[in-house]
């Protein structure tokens, strides 16, 4: 999108002018003459927060939900789709892993496109691909059309590349420094809620019936519902989603706006990030944690059915419990970070508790089904709750680099480890048992916890906002002192002399 179009989309309306709020003391408007119109650097610039920012993040969260729902749509009833399409269980596993595989080579060009064209273009392409994929699935409901349904899932996996790295970018572009972590958590919240619905609805909409025609009708109904929702969200994005607000929400974002596309080198940015040792360690630890989550989600149906035959619906409900607990964890962690700014301490604590939760889950999965619900929920609270922590910690460690680039590298690592863990754990479960597969994941979570403890907490974005506040306060003091000196130096009037 052109700069003119971005400005046109972001024009103030009367309601926004009436309801806008100043950010903090450090983000106060600069004095006349403070700003250089040529370079935009130096003095603090005017900042505003707009009410529409909540509409933007909620719309993003909604279409992220629709896409992530389809990630586990096949896997959670894998035994049913295996019978309907007459394929192997490992083939159905690829219906989830294709989300991971397409992300790895495409995230870099998509992140470049995000930096060049902005949020709106990425949102339009992502929702369009998601919409197309859902309608392809609608026409694939025949036992001999597995290739068509795979094509539909492939389109949705392409859409995911345009969605997964956006939460931290939206939070940075639209939200104040005291709410970026909460906003990022809301963005990730949609992805998690979509996974939760993906665990819950397919076992309910597609029961394990013997009659193939009846089964086809159930599958078709599920696909039609998904396509309708995806189409509605695509239309909303066309008419509602905006590029950015007219005025930046923070001084850090104001500084970022002064970097023109011609000055920005995507390759150089990646190389700088890969030379940032704390961020490289975070890439590894994030990949290990989220890769374990992907493996558990993809293979959950197989793990539960092995110990609890005929419990497809409860397997979905256990997946739902994992994600819902994680959503609560995400929101709590986001609010906690906004208030305390203890990024490393919170990330390390959540990581260690994820390891503990995985050990308890592995030890109790063969117990009564209600015990599995409790232990799986405890695991999900920390494992899924870790997702926004990684995004926000990365944004702090890598400022002023693009949030899209840093989150893209995190997600790329997660997809690589997700594919490796899913394949390896699946083979271990088939050759040995579920306990051995879960112990395999516990080992890597232990390694991730140790590496997390080694990450240096260099909060660059917080430091930038702090320095901007100090500079603004300094300029206000200088102005007040100058005004006082000017008044005291004025000659007394005749009346005052009298």
TrEMBL record:
Residues 485-498 have a biased composition (Low complexity). The keyword Ubl conjugation does not apply. The chain crosses the membrane at residues 54-72, 92-114, 121-139, 145-168, 180-201, 221-241, 279-296, 316-337, 346-363, 369-389, 409-429, 435-455. It catalyses: choline(out) = choline(in); heme b(in) = heme b(out); ethanolamine(in) = ethanolamine(out). It is found in: Cell membrane; Endoplasmic reticulum membrane; Mitochondrion membrane. Residues 1-43, 476-498 are annotated as: Disordered. Keywords: Cell membrane, Endoplasmic reticulum, Membrane, Mitochondrion, Receptor, Transmembrane, Transmembrane helix, Transport. It comes from the Eukaryota. InterPro entries: FLVCR1-2_SLC49-like, MFS, MFS_dom, MFS_trans_sf. Residues 56-460 form the Major facilitator superfamily (MFS) profile domain. PROSITE patterns: MFS. GO terms for biological process: heme export. One of its GO terms (molecular function) is choline transmembrane transporter activity. Choline uniporter that specifically mediates choline uptake at the blood-brain-barrier. Responsible for the majority of choline uptake across the blood-brain-barrier from the circulation into the brain. Choline, a nutrient critical for brain development, is a precursor of phosphatidylcholine, as well as betaine. Also mediates transport of ethanolamine. Choline and ethanolamine transport is not coupled with proton transport and is exclusively driven by the choline gradient across the plasma membrane. Also acts as a heme b transporter. This is FLVCR choline and putative heme transporter 2. It comes from Fundulus heteroclitus.
